[in-house]
Amino acid sequence: MPFLFLAMSKTSDADLFETTAESVRTIAKESNGKIIAVYLNTDDKSASQVLNYLDLKSEDYPTYRILNLEKVSLWESL
Question: Would you say the pTM of this structure is higher than 0.90?
């Protein structure tokens, strides 16, 4: 099952966060369980392991990654 990881700060740009989070919620809802959306708060140190796994650096934020665990493939945002 594919995962959509949204990596962004909740505090640096509240308007951008709300707009983006709403878009991701819509995608997750409309996919009817075919994709799992995961928010990674880049301000939270506990997210660092997942961010490192996705090969994300602070200069990349805000961004997203789609990871398909069944095919073990990683798509980058453009």
Answer: no
